[in-house]
Amino acid sequence: MLLKHISKNNLKLGTLGNNLHKYLSSHGHTGLDVRLLLRRSNHRFCVIGSGPAGFYAAQHLLKLKPSSRVDIYEKLPVPFGLVRYGVAPDHPEVKNVTHTFTTVLKNPNVAFIGNFEAGKDITLGKLKESYHAILLAYGASEDRKLNIPGEKEHVVSARDFVGWYNGLPANRDLAINLETKKRAIIIGNGNVTLDIARILLSPIELLEKTDISPYALDALKKSTISEVVICGRRGPLQVSFTIKELRELVNMKSARAVSEIRDFDGINEQLLKDFPRPKKRLTELLLKSAQASDTTSSGSYSKSWFLKFMRSPKMVERHGDKLHLTLEINEFDPANKERVVGTGKTEVNICDIVFRSVGYKGRRIFDELPFDENTGIIPNVGGKIENGIYCVGWAGQGPRGVILSTMQNSFDVAKTIIQDMESVPHSDKSGFETIKNLVTDKRLTCYTDFVKIADFEEKHNRKVTTIDEMFKIINGKL
Amino acid sequence: MRIYGNLLKKLFYTYQNNNLARVSSAISGGYHINRRLLVTTPVAKTDVEMVDITFVRSDGSKIATKGKIGDNLLDVVVNNNVDLDGFGACEGTLACSTCHVIFKQKDFDIIKEKLTDEELDMLDMAFGLCDTSRLGCQVCLTKELAGVEVKVPEGVNDARSS
């Protein structure tokens, strides 16, 4: 009877307390106010950003307080952040985490609100009024620059390129032409660099099987890139990429690794012996591929990749249809072997395309909150910025690490939030019910909208890459 | 009736011996039986050998459960809803290290599946990596592993921050 009443009136869980109270009092049960029983767990949480950090935090908040309600806000109409738009298309297994995220989305205490730009569509003050705690999980949406002459005109941002091949609406019109191009140089020694190298060097048959954006696949089909140079400021012992990504490149049948063995001077078994296992194995693999590249004949490979160490970019110029990248040769600082200093000696590398892939950087979205412009991080202690405001993932820790480091951070911060809530006097907060009345000038998206887009993508076997098309699908016009 | 009874007995026997060749020869022993049906018939639970396994969380708390011989440790966690946060994020595709478990040396030594480079690569990202670390999704339960106790370290560590 009670359940019938609830379902008939389409009652939301957040108002369950009040409605139960209404129902019970209308049926003569006046002695007990059920609202008091449900009260302490009726927390409303707001998560800004729907990437791994936001989802793992939401998941854990609900695990620790199953009756709390979590509203997840996202700038794009669709969720999953870098899992959808950052993870390389040939790494579909990494995207399996979205199964867990979808379970979170299906929880009746979770609302997904897409096409919503926090800081622009709503002020922090309004969010504070509507939620017991706000969790900033919006990642790091800028990328670090080289700050060299010619960068603006001639250097492609790795972030944009990744967004381009992954179908991120903002990057789909990036002018990438790989026809008649032979040599690409990627500046930076992280995993994004290796992703780009792999995408550029992969046989097209492999990419065809992925969810790479259709226009990127077309451009890569026409690509004539045969050499990828990966350029690092420091040496083989300071690389930022991880061994899985390196091994994929080393094992590539279509491309040969080329190294300058002298970069590995002094790196020998004696030195490796004392390294922790991960660093030892990574360095061994680098060394092995460098040694092999000295002896393997180039005959069977049509493409190659090259790790160039101890170089810093200084300038890019266009000469005819070629780019001239000037690199300064570095040497280790005698006082600190992890640092390098320029020698003043330079070399010019002639190439066709230059990527910068030297890391991401956070952005300020709320002027009211502190922000460290240098690091791009919101200053925080264990995820806490101030009372009721927290940050997780890259927004709070900086853009480093794989999904799993973010997951652990999200679990930790969620735990802190729930602990802090114990000492917060309870008050009724209305969450999205209030916020939706404040954002009237645009169509926000919800989980069922996303399901429509996901179904369309599955049916047509391609990613939807414009916001316009997304809304056409939502509105049943496609 | 009797014929079928005998046949079933024969089949049961061959199942017990886990010998597919014999199962199929029993099937083809003159009786018309739908092979596909037989293959897809679920095996009753009592026919499957279960072994005890204990997961020890980082805070020392223990979760005792049972797993089928042949199942990997991620299967065991999923099938029994073992409460381990974030365990098996990539669903056993060797793309993460969230199912990292630490064995006792004696158990580690009798694991049938050998460590591959790919598993080691993912383990290198794991927090609290030991010489007896494995990814749960790569280790299958065997009779010999009955009663095994594995530690589940908290969290993950990014090799790049070390």
Mean pLDDT of chain B: 76
Computed structural class of chain A: alpha/beta
How much helicity do the residues of chain B have? 25-40%
What integer value in Å does the Rg of chain B equal? 20 Å
Q: What is the β-strand count of chain A?
A: 17
Q: What oligomeric state is this?
A: heterodimer
Low-pLDDT parts of chain A are 1-15, 30-39
Q: Remind me, CATH topology of the domain at 50-151 in chain B? A: Ubiquitin-like (UB roll)
Give a quick account of the main beta sheet of chain B: strands, pairing sense, barrel closure: 3 strands, mixed
Mean pLDDT of chain A: 91
- DSSP helical segment count of chain B: 6
Structural class determined from secondary elements of chain B: alpha+beta
Task: Give the overall shape of chain A, derived from the CA principal axes.
Answer: globular
What order do the strands of the largest sheet of chain A run in, or round the barrel if closed?
Answer: 3-2-1-4-17-16
Strand arrangement across the biggest beta sheet of chain B: 2-1-5
Provide a short characterization of the protein structure.
The complex is a heterodimer of chains A (478) and B (162). By secondary structure, chain A is α/β, with parallel strands linked by helices.
Verbal overview:
- The complex is a heterodimer of chains A (478) and B (162).
- Chain A has 478 residues and is an alpha/beta fold.
- Chain A folds into two domains: 184 residues, 3-Layer(aba) Sandwich (Rossmann fold); 214 residues, FAD/NAD(P)-binding domain.
- In chain A, 37% of the residues lie in helices and 19% in strands.
- Chain A has a six-stranded mixed β-sheet with strand order 3-2-1-4-17-16, sandwiched between helices. A six-stranded parallel β-sheet of chain A has the order 6-14-7-8-10-9. A three-stranded antiparallel β-sheet of chain A has the order 11-12-13, with no helix packed on it.
- In chain A, strand 11 and strand 12 form a beta hairpin.
- The longest helix of chain A is centred in the middle third of the chain and has 19 residues.
- Chain A is globular, with a radius of gyration of 26 Å.
- The N terminus of chain A is likely disordered.
- Chain B is of the alpha+beta class and 162 residues long.
- Chain B has six helices and five strands; from the N terminus they run αααββαβααββ.
- Chain B has a domain of 102 residues: Beta-grasp domain (Ubiquitin-like (UB roll)), CATH 3.10.20.
- The relative contact order of chain B is 0.16.
- Classes of the chains: A alpha/beta (478), B alpha+beta (162).
- The interface between A and B is medium-sized, with 32 and 29 residues.
